[in-house]
Write a structure and sequence with these properties.
Blueprint lengths: L1 E3 L8 H10 L10 H11 L3 E7 L7 E8 L5 E7 L19 E3 L2 E3 L7 H17 L14 E7 L10 H10 L6 E4 L11 E3 L1 E2 L1 E10 L3 E2 L9 H14 L13 E8 L7 E2 L2 E10 L5 H16 L5 E6 L6 E2 L4 H14 L4 E3 L7 H4 L5 E3 L13 E3 H20 L6
Length: about 400
């Protein structure tokens, strides 16, 4: 039994999540999602700014910054309304942009990553402010702090014209938050399992081995780059980069592509290329890691007569928000709503928290990530309800702990 979603209710996370999913905001398209949030938040008394950024060679991206209040502490919720493409829509049980409830779950692209979490935080914030006496204006009788939302349309894309540039704008206009929550899906299988207090860094490399093309029957007149590439890759992967650290697992290097581009069985190719990615912990920075990998490749190829080029793309740094009050408030809220005590972890891929950590402490907590980027992305209705309750409890704990008069 299934039914289509009704229109949004300003205080209802489920209805707002449905309305957001209806917006076809495949990165970097806005798709109406930011317009919807701007309307909902504006009517609730938030001051909203639409920020469009572009850079040569990249698409323009629409972003939203919304803030209620002007005092401290200033808590920011960060997220993204852009989603990955749905792929072959014929494979979906329910159309990806027609939010559908079936079997106790909300189906649709972005239900988990991360329109669902945005809807939960909006609903929690509006309920919290209403309880403090907010009547849709820039005031709340029992609230002296600030709540803001930084919502980008560029997280699933190149992340050039989104969160990073919004943060710079926020800093220039007096909106740097004291703390930030990113609503990325963080739980492997059940809501309340994990809070992310940091993320591993990411470094991608391309290794090209240069030989001499020739006929396989006359190898003395050629120089085959493939054995050299195999030795170099073995050297990259042979020895662990580290043994991990207090909050991070050991760094891992994964070979992701090997390409020779040779369709002839009787020709030794001129060059061979491999690509790899390293997810690294706080033992490394990108420059030091790149230098280490260059040494390993050079040693593996010494005396081979082969040339090589090892290049690296832009890196994402590893970072850590040391366990403190921010994570403690979230852990307490999770325990109260779910009965689970979440682990503080740094696993998983990168997120826009890598930009936010330069401005303020940041942690991540959101929905269960089992179906992110998949066909039939979906989340449990119960999880939407509980996540809203967790964010609401967090807001209560966070602002109750603020020093008097702040």
């Amino acid at each position: 039994m299934s039914h289509q979603a009704p229109g949004p209710n300003l205080n209802d996370a489920l209805s707002l999540a449905k309305a957001l999913i209806t917006c076809p905001s495949v990165t970097p398209a806005e798709g109406g999602a930011l317009t919807l949030l701007e309307k909902v938040l504006g009517e609730a008394g938030f001051t909203c700014e639409r920020l469009v950024f572009e850079e040569a060679g990249t698409p323009a991206v629409d972003n939203l910054f919304a803030r209620f209040g002007s005092g401290t502490p200033h808590l920011c919720f960060a997220g993204h309304t852009d989603v990955v493409p749905p792929g072959d829509e014929a494979l979906w049980r329910h159309p990806p942009f027609a939010p559908t409830i079936a079997d106790g779950r909300l189906h649709g692209r972005g239900a988990v990553d991360m329109k669902g979490a945005i809807a939960c935080f909006v609903a929690a914030a509006l309920a919290y402010l209403e309880a403090k006496g907010n009547k849709g204006k820039q005031s709340a009788a029992g609230f002296a702090g600030s709540i803001s939302l930084l919502i980008t349309g560029d997280e699933e894309g190149p992340a050039i014209n989104g969160t990073r540039k919004v943060l710079a704008w926020m800093a220039a206009h007096g909106h740097v938050p004291d703390d930030c929550i990113v609503g990325e899906p963080t739980n492997p299988s059940a809501l309340g399992e994990e809070i992310k207090i940091g993320r591993r860094g990411s470094l991608s490399g391309t290794l090209t081995i240069k030989g001499v093309q020739g006929h396989v029957a006359y190898p003395e007149a050629a120089r085959n780059p493939i054995p050299g590439l195999m030795r170099a890759l073995a050297a990259l992967d042979a020895e662990p980069l580290d043994a991990g650290s207090e909050h991070f697992a050991p760094s891992n290097l994964e070979i992701t592509s090997i390409d020779v581009g040779n369709r002839a069985e009787n020709v030794i190719p001129a060059e061979a290329t491999a690509r790899f990615n390293v997810r690294f912990n706080d033992h490394h920075d990108a420059d030091g890691l790149a230098a280490l990998l260059r040494i390993r490749v050079a040693a593996a190829l010494e005396g081979s007569g082969l040339g090589h080029a090892l290049t690296f793309g832009p890196a994402s740094p590893a970072f850590l928000t040391e366990p403190g009050p921010l994570a403690a408030h979230m852990r307490r809220a999770i325990e109260q709503v779910t009965g689970r005590t979440p682990r503080l972890t740094t696993s998983g891929g990168t997120s826009d928290a890598r930009f936010i950590k330069d401005y303020c402490p940041v942690i991540e907590f959101g929905l269960v990530n089992a179906t992110i980027h998949q066909v039939d992305e979906n989340t449990a209705l119960d999880d939407l309800e509980k996540l809203t309750a967790i964010y609401r409890r967090f807001l209560e704990h966070y602002f109750a702990a603020a020093p008097a008069g702040s």
